[in-house]
Amino acid sequence: MSHLSFTLIQTNLHWEDKAANLHMLEQKIKAVPHAKQIVVLPEMFSTGFSMKPELLAEEMNGPTVAWMKRVAAEHKIVLTGSVIISQAAPSGHTNDDKEYFNRLIWMLPNGQYAYYDKRHLFAFAGEHEHYTAGTKRLIASVNGWKINLQVCYDLRFPVWARQQTNDTPEYDVLIYVANWPERRQHAWRTLLQARAIENQCYVIGVNRVGEDGNGIYHSGNSMVIDAMGEVLYKKEHEEDIHNIVLSKEKLEEVRHKLPFLKDGDDFHITP
Q1: Which residue is catalytic, options 69, 152, 201, 235?
Q2: Could you give the 3-state DSSP secondary structure of residue 194?
Q3: CATH code of the domain in which 156 resides
């Protein structure tokens, strides 16, 4: 398929209130026209960016993943965003019998799913003290498109997103879901554009708006950027639901005219 449609939901979040957030987000999804294919929610969309996984985490058979499965099926969409997830810790784990992940869920309308655990934990806020870092990337396939899925602070580490390719690029769209504070918005905007240019791909960044429970303000600035670094969509400060259709033909035209990826360095990322 030469075109793929995305819906970006830039929203405020109820602090650590799963029921309120899931109800609010379902109402927003219901308001989206039927043409949507992939709906992108912010990081930790059911709670906000909380460092209380011991109180808020749920297992993969818990209510938030079940909600994603139901909503994706009812609306015939792919639904994605990150959730606080717990699972049994391996033997020798130092804290307790569980470990916690900032886990992005990629939920298909047929109930099947994949997930990505955030690799780069935000030590400045103590995320590394509460959560376990992921070790594997997730590149999903939809109608002939390849989509690389990442979370917030991953954006600052370009090697983790870098196309590793000889003849065929690994992916066509790079998605970041985030709770990125307003006071570092210049970095957010600049790095999103850089990731698009250096990887010759579309980049989608979905951020929240509003003040969280720690008094930190988020101005959104959710964006869609093309492979030349041109901004196709940006929204500041306000809640917004934005639908956009991306063209595979336009992307391939850029890659054909400017075949820069083939000149990239070979490298290997260790777990």
Answers
A1: 152
A2: helix
A3: 3.60.110.10
Cα separation, 123 vs 113, whole angstroms = 29
**Does residue 271 belong to any structural domain of this protein?**
no
In a domain, 222, yes or no: yes
> Would you state the pLDDT for residue 207?
98
Q: Which of 118, 127, 201, 235 is catalytic?
A: 118
Tens digits of residue pLDDT in 69-93 = 999 999 999 999 999 999 988 866 6
Residue 198 buriedness (CB in 10 A; 0-12 / 13-18 / 19+): middle
Catalytic-residue membership of 43: yes
Quick check: is 118 catalytic?
yes
Q: Taking the chain, what is the end-to-end CA distance rounded to the nearest angstrom?
A: 34
- The angle subtended at Cα 208 by Cα 38 and Cα 11, nearest 5°, is 70
Q: Which of 43, 99, 127, 201 is catalytic?
A: 43
What tokens were used for 181? Answer: 């504070």
Rounded average pLDDT over 179-186? 96
Residue closest to 180 by CA, chosen among 213, 147, 222: 222
User: Is 152 one of the catalytic residues?
Assistant: yes
What is the phi-psi region of residue 122: left when phi exceeds 0, alpha when psi lies from -120 to 50, beta otherwise?
beta
The answer to whether position 205 is within a domain reads yes
Strand partners, 105: 81, 115
**Type of residue at 89:** A
